Each structure stands twice: as structure tokens, then as C-alpha cells.
Amino acid sequence: MNPVIKTGPAKYPVELKEVKEQLNLTVGWTDDDEWLKRAIAVATSKVEQYLKRRLITQTWYAYYDAWPTGDAIVLPFGKLQSVTTVKYTETSGTQTTWSATEYNADTDSDPGRVVLEYGYPWPSFDLNPLNPVEVEFVCGYGTTGSSVEPSIKHAMVMAIDDLYNNRGDKLVGVLSQDMRISTGLLWPFRIFERATT
Q: In whole angstroms, what is the distance from residue 114 CA to residue 162 CA?
């Protein structure tokens, strides 16, 4: 499976104001704002990588080499909001949009899935050898940081606090107390590999 982003998130899960409150910075003091904005971007990226999720609403393509052997395609990143289209490319190079009446978007499972509608098989055409199955989908907790789990957001501001107060080189492999707590807050929301069935 090869995911490719189509539309990125409109904002970050935590705002500059929330980070400054964590750091107890004086209201109106802006000297470190650019540094803090970069730290928010870094923390978002690192947390999303660790969780194997995307936090704020965004649209992705997932490409697969073949149809699954079972009745579902497991999509990456969790918190599936919707499936826009499922397309497949035949060996001739013809791309077809598969009828949405023949599958369901399972937004209740986490991670979400494309599941065959009862009585329907996967399309039986010979598939192109290069990323022939394309699923366009929308994922994330919601369009604003208030949709994201509070524990995830708190872990992010704690990580930024750690970065801010411990700038420079750190001993390799040594986690601060704040970073260990952050990891503990994130652990329950981490996605683990699940086979496509």
C-alpha cells in the first residue's frame, strides 16, 4: 500500500496560544513565536508518525497492487470519515470508477475499511501491474484541534515544552520525564498493523 496526500490539513491540532500557556510565557511576548510555530509542525509530524494516524481532516489516496483476498481493504491512518472513490486500472490502462453500490465505507472500525457489499465480489478484470487499485478517502479526528483527543494534544504541548526548555544536543537514547509521560499519553491511540482480510 502506498499513500499519497491530496489535500493537507487546514491547521495544526494545537495552536500557538495553547503552547504559550503550557510554557507560561508572558502575554504579548512574541520573540519565540516563529520557533514555536516550527515546533508545533515538528510535534504534529512526530506524533502522527508515532500514532500512525492523521489528526486534522485531510484527503489521501491509497494505492494497492491487487484486490485483497478477503472482503475488505484496510485503509491507513485511522479515523476514516468517508471514502470518496474506489478506482481500478486494467492492463489496457483503462481506469474505471467502481460503483459505490458494491462496497461500503466502514467508518466505525479504526482503522477504517472498504468492505464488499453483500453478494458482490471484487472487480474481476486483469489489473495493471503499477498501483492498479486507488482509494481516495478522508480521515482525521475533525477540522479543528478541539476534535482531537485531549490526551494527544496534551502530549504534543508537553513534547514542545520539552523541546523549548532543553534546546541543543541531548544524550542519545535518553528521554526526559516529560517525554516519557507524553509517550504514555499517546500509547492508547496508536494504530498497530492489521492484516487486510
A: 40
